[in-house]
Amino acid sequence: MRNTKAFKEAVAQTLAELAYRGVTLAPATVADTIEQQITTVSERLGIQVRSSWRYFDASATADRLAQSVSSYEESSSEKGVGQAPMPPIDNPELALVLAGVPDSLDQTGGDLYAVIINVAVNAWMAGHIHGEDGCTGCDESRGDVGHDWEARMRTITEMQPNITKWFDRDVWTAAVNDTGYAVTRR
């Protein structure tokens, strides 16, 4: 279904409608929603998938998606859910996460999924630790000692003094290539 002209046009129209409403969603999210809608219509009406397209309305789909996003944002803010900010780009811990990618790639034998999981977890932790004081969900969860973020950054910088090199795309790519792996487009 995803390779059809109708599907691609439906995704493009829905993304345009969302943009008109000031809502940004990943194209994959929109595509998954449309695929689910068309499949459901086909099954419930007992018709072929290609016949289900006559029931598709990009504007109505965009309205429902925008309403979902709005409801989620409202429910999260009402409950005081905190969200840690992204650490600064020159953050030593972020440099450590970037530096770990080539090693992780080498250790996993090129398992990109395992590398991405490792990076995601470490980046999330780095962002969370950096922003914990501003995270309302973390209030009183640090105990008596709390977290000395500055001390943590000093320790990381001492462990790896040249952190800025990892923010250079060419240095990072060379380190990945030194492992014997490369990310290439098919």
Into which percent range does the helicity of residues fall? 55-70%
| Cα radius of gyration in angstroms | 23 Å
Strand content: under 5%
> How many helical elements?
8
Report the principal-axis shape: elongated
Give the averaged pLDDT, no decimals.
78
Number of DSSP strand runs: 0
Sheet having the most strands: none
Distance linking N and C termini? 22 Å
Secondary-structure content class:
mainly alpha
Q: Could you state the oligomeric state of the chains shown?
A: single chain
- The H/E string reads HHHHHHHH
Low-confidence stretches: none
Give a quick set of tags describing it.
0% strand; mainly alpha; 186 residues
In short:
With 186 residues, the chain is mainly α.
Task: Provide an overview of this structure.
This protein is mostly helical and 186 residues long. Helices cover 63% and strands 0% of the residues. It has helices at 5-20, 27-45, 49-52, 58-78, 92-107, 112-131, 149-159, 169-178. The longest helix is centred in the middle third of the chain and has 21 residues, at 58-78. The chain is elongated. The two termini are 22 Å apart. The relative contact order is 0.10. The mean pLDDT is 78.
